[in-house]
Specification:
- By secondary structure, the chain is of the alpha+beta class.
- It is 22% helix and 17% strand.
- The chain folds into two domains: 34 residues, no CATH class; 191 residues, Glucose Permease (Domain IIA), CATH 2.70.70.
- The strands form two sheets. Strands 1, 2, 4, 5, 6, 7, 9 and 10 form an eight-stranded antiparallel β-sheet that branches. Strands 3-8 form a two-stranded antiparallel sheet.
- A hairpin with an 8-residue loop joins strand 4 and strand 5.
- It starts with a helix and ends in a 22-residue tail after the last helix.
- The structure holds zinc ion.
- Zinc ion binds next to loops.
């Protein structure tokens, strides 16, 4: 550090060195705030739950589980898996940020990979692209909340870390438009995360994806291509929403 400050104050280019150092420091601080700002200003209750899940034993984790096998009154979807809804829609935490918030919900399982069932949240047509190891998407021709449009329900992480899938045999890679009813077993939650070195907890990632207008789903990785699942589930699963506030949810199930 002392060598650095001596170098900084030594001519030539002293002024330029100072400017660059200030700009680099400001840039790094900006990046830090974008990535970790939620730690300072975030929702304390949600952060506390996250810590409880990460460090808790079996029973402490069980307290955080949402068990909701039937649709909430007035809501069209069932919750596609039981678990701790730990990363919410529009969530800036975890690997996400305020600039790149979470596009869906992560339902974490209190069990190892391959155990917790995943169900179709609504009637629709299953597609699994030939190279999808752990993912499915279900086309819902009529959005139950806005029947003039088509929407898609995206499911991922249904495989183990090696990429062995926990998807039911009825939906092999290449599955195209296979009709399923709400509640149909699709597979089991897992911890597959592609080729990424980042480990993920055993979970289901579930998101509601917009149609491109030509009958195909938009890129589900882009936040702007997704919808808040809360009114579909009748559950507050949006980061921006405190429990009981509603936020577009007319009937809210007790958690
Ligand atoms: Zn997710």
């Amino acid at each position: 550090m002392r060598r650095f400050s001596r170098w900084l104050n030594r001519p030539p280019y002293r002024w330029w060195k100072w400017c660059t150092a200030v700009l680099v420091t400001a840039g790094l601080m900006g990046l830090f705030i974008i990535q970790f700002g939620w730690l300072l200003s975030g929702n304390g209750r949600l952060n506390q739950q996250f810590v409880q899940w990460a460090g808790g034993d079996e029973n402490e984790r069980q307290e955080l589980i949402t068990l909701q096998r039937d649709a909430c009154p007035g809501a069209p979807f069932i919750l596609p898996a039981d678990g701790f809804i730990g990363l919410l829609y529009a969530d800036p935490r975890g690997p996400y940020s305020r600039l790149r918030p979470h596009q869906g919900i992560d339902i974490f399982s209190n069990a190892e990979a391959g155990v917790t069932p995943v169900y179709a949240a609504y009637d629709g047509y299953v597609t699994r692209l030939p190279d999808w190891r752990s993912s499915l998407i279900i086309r819902v021709p009529e959005d139950p909340l806005q029947p003039s449009r088509q929407i898609w329900l995206y499911y991922t992480h249904l495989a183990d870390t090696a990429g062995n899938d926990f998807i039911e045999d009825a939906f092999p890679p290449g599955t195209d438009e296979l009709f399923v009813r709400q509640g149909t077993l699709l597979g089991y939650t897992g911890d597959y995360n592609g080729d990424s070195l980042r480990r993920v907890w055993v979970q289901l990632h579930f998101s509601v994806v917009l149609d491109d207008g030509d009958g195909r789903f938009r890129n589900e990785l882009e936040f702007d291509n997704t919808l808040n699942p809360s009114p579909y589930l009748g559950l507050d699963v949006s980061y921006a929403c405190e429990p009981g506030e509603g936020c577009g949810v007319t009937t809210v199930c007790a958690p």
